[in-house]
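Subject: Interface between my chains keeps coming out wrong

I've been trying for a while to get a sensible model of this assembly. When I model each chain on its own everything looks fine, but I need the whole thing in one frame so I can look at the contacts. Pasting all components below, labels as-is. Any help appreciated, I'm running out of ideas.
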Amino acid sequence: MAKLMSLLWGAGSPPCWRVMITLEEKKLQGYKRKLLSFEKGEHKSQEVLEVNPRGQLPAFKHGDIILNESCATCLYLENQFKSQGIKLIPDSADDQAAMYQHMMEGLALTDKLNSVIYYDCSVPEEERHDFAVKRNKEALTAELKLWEGYLENVAAGSYLAGAFSLADVIVFPSIACAFRFGLSVGRYPKLAKYYSLLKNRASIKTTWPPHWVASPQGYDILKDL
Amino acid sequence: MAKDMTLLWGSGSPPCWRIMIALEEKNLQGYNQKQLYFEKGEHKSKEVMEINPRGQLPAFKCGDKIINESCGVCFFLESKYKSQGTKLIPDCDAEQALMFQRVFEVNTFGDKMGNVIYYNWKVPEGERHDSAIKRNKEALTAEVKLWEGYLQKTSGGFLAGKNFSLADVIVFPAIAYLYRFGLSEERYPKLTEYYKNLMNRPSIKATWPPTWKETPGQDILKDI
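Reply #2:
Try treating it as a single job with all components included. I did that and got this:
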């Protein structure tokens, strides 16, 4: 099972983290894994390109099967290992509705976070504009307020779609990133509660980005949002 | 049932089209639907905002359940109506994995396409750069080549292998969009073969964007 699986991953990357949380939840510990460095450009190495021609992490293999899109990997693992570990997709289709909705919306949240946090990495210097930075921050603020609203009734055991589910697997890493990069706990109390409820969940604690443990002090790019 | 479903949609929008294809494939014709017009800003109307606070189409309700993310709707419909219509999630592990993989690659595909086709709409005049336009075109070209390669390597005629699946439901509209905006048929033979084969599939034919039948396409992508 897990021994036939291998994961190439980068620390702090929400897509990589999603896959690692899922593997823990499905009791698939023991998979081969290799930590690579984005800063050293290792995501563009031959080793990654052989698994993922896009030169991106995560790059995941299960035997001959390759899955490089984190949501795809999580859905595949839940389907293949439905009967072990935690159930990550509710049984009834009606309960699944909220889960699928928030799972997919999670990708918009990640994009908007990236457009602010990694603006300078993705936009060449001569093309950067203060107006664009401002617009990206406004879009991210609106997005975060939406999630603050979704989590109006957050409590232990009551997360994005009720019980812990793939929606939380997909979204939590981005929320954790937001706080790592300085999001105000005071201004987003529901998000902060969600974050503090889940950060001690076993699968999440075990897979917490190692450099975040080593240096708990993050950044403050998002402190004014 | 279909009568408990409502879809607000815009013609030509790949996310809207995906849901309509899925509904046909699952024999769920007869759902309530209303065509809205992006050009008139109707996606930001109160009617839409009440279902989708993001002011985007599609906006979809099944009973009191709301799902506005097109991939989410497709997975939901396949789960709820597993036993009717076409099976859209393959049983075979390898095909299933490939289906999931291709489904989620559609997001970056759509983004790159949008960055070229809608550059002037997305980027205010004072912020436009020839270097960005060039880079966006190169990124889209690389993306289209990747999909051409996928179809070369995968035998069976569909994106995940020999069975029509959610990968085709979700990705075909984006591929059709490329041709609507002038992609060269000769330069990408496998994509073209796929496009021409699937355009005759009943669920796709029945839901072909009405505005595409009424007006000619554009040639923004002819050099891709």
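Reply #3:
Confirming on my end. Chain B has a mean pLDDT of 96.
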